[in-house]
Amino acid sequence: MPTYNLKINGQDHAVDATAETPLLWALRDHLDLVGTKYGCGIGQCGACTVHVDGNATRSCQLQVSQLDGKSITTIEGLSNDGTHPVQQAWKAVDVPQCGYCQAGQIMTASAFLAKYPNPSEEDIKNAMQGNICRCAAYNRIQKAVAVAAEKMV
Amino acid sequence: MSTLVSIKFSRRAFLRTSSLAGGGMLIGFNLFTACKPKVEMPVDISKLNFNDFNAFIKIADNGMVTIFSPNPEIGQGVKTSMPMIIAEELDVPWDNVYVQQGILDTKNYTRQIAGGSQSIRFGWDPLRQTGATARQMLVNAAAARWGVDPAECEAKQGIITNAKGETLGYGDVVNDAATLEVPENVVLKDPKEYSLIGQDITNVDIDKIITGKPLFGLDYKEEGMVYASVLRPPSFGKVLDTFDDSEARAMPGVIDVIRIGQKARELLGKEEQNWTVKLSDSDKVVVIAKTTWEAIQGKKAIQATWTEGTPLESTDFQDKRLLGLLDGKVFTTLRKDGNVAKAFEQADKVLERTYESPFLPHNCMEPMNFFANVTEDRIHLVGPVQTPADAAATVAEMLGRDVADVHLEMTRMGGGFGRRLYGDFVYEAAEIANAIKKPVKMVSTREDDMTTGVYRPAIKYRIKASIKNGEITGYHLKEAAINDNMYGLIPNFFPAGTLENYQVDVAKYDSNITTGAWRAPYTNFLSFAEQSFLDELAELMDKDPVQMRLDLLQKVKGTTDERIEYSPQRLEDVIHLVVEKSGYRNPKPGVFQGFCAYYCHNTHVAEVADVVIENNTPVVKKITVAVDCGIVVNPLGARNQIEGGIVDGVGHAMYANFMFKDGAPESNNYDRYRLIRMNEAPKVETFFVENTLSPTGLGEPALPPAGAAVSIALKKATGNRIYKQPFINNMMAKEVIG
């Protein structure tokens, strides 16, 4: 089986896997980074969102063979101790219900706010509509993104 | 309605205490039933037999408190709110409290269940009693040390103070307290004294959730663990014949391919646990691999043949069958007051409408999964299940083992919605582990989850009412459902009790499609049918729909009918509150408002939906909701449940559809099954009726009225009544969209 070198959260990791293994499963099963969640496997729900060179990307749709030289950030590496403004906003607003989709929501929101620091309500809704929350905590997710935007300015 | 309800406990059976070898005090308590009278507490917490109790408080000699939360956490917030109730009566600063998930007791207790919005309702008294008893023991220990009467001492925020103003911390006296008798007749706080209950408390797992720590069943790992992907029949009605696994076996990471199902099927006909789902009569093919991905890929490579065991149903067939039941004459009558037929004969006007709903999958974001390791010593099970006791008992029976061998750990659940009441995935994991003699995690894919579910069945209602001299004189509700009908007190919900001639009849047919509870079973669709009907009836009578409800409620006040569980006064209170807060009497121009009021799961709720027309399309903008759930334990968590329940209710009413063709679901993932997303979610504004009545649960009751309120607002906005879900297929807003 081939070995792929992945740069994740600033560290190099060697993964022995077939070329088409999705990044999602390499993270979860090979590297024990289980914060990135499996939800649908077809890029529809956003639970598996990570940053690839700063862009919010569905890790279920990326193969380990496509990531040479890319810098990957997962929820575990977004901050050292949960202090990223988006994570803090999630806590201040008390967003989660079951909590399962929230890592993906936070990764989408943090990549979005890094590019669009001053979003309108409509901007937030459009940016976040790719992430499903089955508990439907959408009111709070939306509010938390707005709170984080204020902190990040 | 009384104020605080209290249940008497025999404290000796209910509570046990012991001092801990490392310092501190341990209090074990049986939360829901105390049926094991003699249990010894250990002096070393590592020797604690978790099966003897289902919840604990540990008070360390530094004053820190650990509370083990007994019930499974599915996102309904009980891991935060149940320990809050203990901490209130114990009177400790919340910052000094650490909450841990308690473990399952498979033997003695009856309600370690997440379901029916009942955790808080049933936990309220025993949790308060436990906290208060512990507080009294600490006070008694301090009083003994001072040589004073305990009545002269006061405990607050972890500090005990005597009449002279001297103080001792809980940690200072905890080792003495552990040796004292468990006191009788402790005094519970008056709600006016609450300093924690009623405060906004953040989810206790928040730091782990936002940093991606392992919390869920899918995150659980053990050394040497392998992964299993299960190939189940592609259609309801088909059974496995043969399979060719040669290609799968040659694939990377694949360790083994096995055939299972026999063990689980032997359970059929045996004594069933409450939450045992109807098991498939087919065998299944299981691919065991080193990683989840390799197991899933291996499964795709299995070439299986299937035979038709029972008829393959399609949606057309189901629709015809259900309508046939409604047209037919064979019903079970669940409530009958007066004579509806006579009322219809003598009526000035009669209104009859039929309401139709599709099947719904649960779609928990965390797909079904479970860890199992079956050895000679024990059966170790870890994962997300709403009914851990039944799952453990069923696994023990399936494998011919003593239930005491089963050690089940509950993980946080990535959603439940009723799906995880049924333990089929636990039995599968255990059967696989038993066969391969390795620790294994069974993981369903989204496609597995959606196509081999335990669905909310398609249901149809037909409602007929008569009007005479401007009054409703008769009301006849008929239900046609699949596999099961409405149960419990549902036939006695509003408007039962308000009308002289009232009847509820149900009929069903048995299908091979597995069905079960889905968040707010039956009422999740019944509310839409009945509340839409009442709105149309009000229109026909030229009455204000709010006043119509209030007039009906007058007629049930003071009823002696014990089946009437809802309170007319509390329903009236939420109606008045929602009318005031939503601006229902003076809607803004261009805003179309739909009103409804509903009672289910012991909670009274009224909602008003605001619909506006944007780009020639009706858009649900806002839902205003008034809730009477008694004392609100944790308003922050309570509002979250209500907001989520409403948006969930709107989403499924608007968009959800799930059809079958020849026994196979036509949707298998989110590209062909539409769940509501943020850009479609209305804003929810929540208002609570303030009172000091015992609290009720909030996981479900805000959901059922949401679809009803939206359908009524859509009628005002578009001119068309909706009788069928999903609304998106049935809006027919011709005047608007043109």
Salient structural properties:
heterodimer; A: 153 residues; alpha+beta; Ubiquitin-like (UB roll); DNA polymerase, domain 1; 2 domains; five-stranded mixed beta sheet; B: 738 residues; Aldehyde Oxidoreductase, domain 4; seven-stranded mixed beta sheet; globular; disordered C terminus
CATH top level class name of the largest domain in chain A? Alpha Beta
Total helices of chain B: the number is 19
* CATH topology (fold) name of the largest domain in chain B: Aldehyde Oxidoreductase, domain 4
Major β-sheet of chain A, in short?
A: 5 strands, mixed
Total E-strand runs of chain A: 5
Q: Termini distance of chain A?
A: 47 Å
Tell me the quaternary state.
Answer: heterodimer
CATH-scheme architecture of the largest domain in chain B? 2-Layer Sandwich
What does this structure look like?
Chain A is an alpha+beta fold and about 150 residues long. Chain A folds into 2 domains: about 80 residues, Roll (Ubiquitin-like (UB roll)); about 70 residues, DNA polymerase, domain 1, CATH 1.10.150.120. Helices cover about 35% and strands about 15% of the residues of chain A. Chain A has a 5-stranded mixed beta sheet with strand order 2-1-5-3-4, sandwiched between helices. In chain A, a hairpin with a 2-residue loop joins strand 3 and strand 4. The longest helix of chain A is centred in the last third of the chain and has 15 residues. The radius of gyration of chain A is 15 Å and the shape is globular. With about 750 residues, chain B is α+β, with helices and mostly antiparallel strands. Chain B is built from 19 helices and 28 strands. In chain B, helix 2 runs parallel beside helix 3, helix 3 crosses helix 4 and helix 15 packs antiparallel against helix 16. The radius of gyration of chain B is 28 Å and the shape is globular. The N terminus and C terminus of chain B are likely disordered. The chains are: A alpha+beta (about 150), B alpha+beta (about 750). At the A-B interface, helix 1, helix 2, helix 3, helix 4 and helix 5 of A face helix 5 and helix 17 of B.
